[in-house]
Amino acid sequence: MTAIGIYGSNGRMGRAIATIIGDEGGTIAGGVDAGGDPAPLAGDADVLVDFSTPAALEPHLAAAVAAGTPIVIGTTGLSATHQALIDAAAQRIAVLQTGNTSLGVTLLGILVREAAARLGSDWDIEIVEMHHRHKVDAPSGTAILLGEAAAQARGTSLSEVRVDGRAGLVGARTEETIGFSSLRGGSVVGDHQVIFAGEGERIELGHRGEDRSIFARGAVKAALWLAGRAPGRYQMAEVLGL
Ligand SMILES: NC(=O)C1=CN([C@@H]2O[C@H](COP(=O)(O)OP(=O)(O)OC[C@H]3O[C@@H](n4cnc5c(N)ncnc54)[C@H](OP(=O)(O)O)[C@@H]3O)[C@@H](O)[C@H]2O)C=CC1
Ligand SMILES: O=C(O)C1=N[C@H](C(=O)O)C[C@H](O)C1
């Protein structure tokens, strides 16, 4: 059986993964949390999953590369510098990084891409997300993933068109921007809505996470799929055959 090492094993996601890992046909190689040494686990595991914190990404990637162990990165709040580190690691090992491992959001990303490609830039795109009160990063990794899908479909990059929140006298909306709004409260697992607002009509595509097990199952599926793969950067849509 494939042994999966968990970076962030005592967190909400780490615990959710441990609960369902056996159902998906994997076993736990071990776990590392704040203050732990990521290297021994990278050596013991067939594949790693990281649901920890952006500050830990660099040492986790270094341990994975040194051991030649593939890694699924679910941690969000990543910067362009983190993405460059992931690209470099993917030259040496198999890596799958995604802001959302669920089947529903992976399909939503495809639908958003399709809608953005077919609708003209006179259809404004706004992304609204809500998460539990403990979440530390905003916009969510999923919101960014959805925004990137829409931006790419329109032949641009998200960094060119992204507007995070609005407050005060910000002026009228400019065409082609993609706006993000983040709500935090209670125990919300993760809600995302992509609004295409046209003249006189609106299309809304969305997803509501009802239980963290949707992310855990996707993460374990991704890990089992990634184990033994050649170096490269892989996508959830490939794992799920979408
Ligand atoms: N891609 C996806 O589908 C999903 C992604 N996420 C993302 O996963 C991440 C974790 O979420 P969640 O489980 O809710 O968060 P938690 O805060 O519950 O857990 C984070 C875990 O990471 C550990 N940690 C902190 N620092 C380090 C470190 N330096 N090395 C190793 N472990 C460390 C913490 O350990 P300690 O307790 O000792 O501090 C804790 O166990 C977030 O970025 C979140 O947005 C969440 C859900 C789905
Ligand atoms: O922190 C969370 O909980 C979640 N984080 C991911 C994100 O940032 O999109 C995925 C999911 O929405 C839950």
From TrEMBL:
Keyword Cytoplasm among record annotations: yes
Annotated residues for binding of NAD(+): G8, S9, N10, G11, R12, M13, G74, T75, T76, T98, G99, N100, T101
Dihydrodipicolinate reductase C-terminal domain ranges (all copies): 104-240
Subcellular location as annotated: Cytoplasm
PROSITE patterns: DAPB
UniProt EC number: 1.17.1.8
Pfam families according to UniProt: DapB_C (PF05173), DapB_N (PF01113)
Pathway the protein contributes to: Amino-acid biosynthesis; L-lysine biosynthesis via DAP pathway; (S)-tetrahydrodipicolinate from L-aspartate: step 4/4
Residue ranges of domain Dihydrodipicolinate reductase N-terminal in the record: 3-100
Keywords from the named record: Amino-acid biosynthesis, Cytoplasm, Diaminopimelate biosynthesis, Lysine biosynthesis, NAD, NADP, Oxidoreductase
Active site per UniProt: H131 (proton donor/acceptor), K135 (proton donor)
Alphabetical list of HAMAP family matching this protein: DapB
Function field: Catalyzes the conversion of 4-hydroxy-tetrahydrodipicolinate (HTPA) to tetrahydrodipicolinate.
Protein name: 4-hydroxy-tetrahydrodipicolinate reductase
Name of the gene: dapB
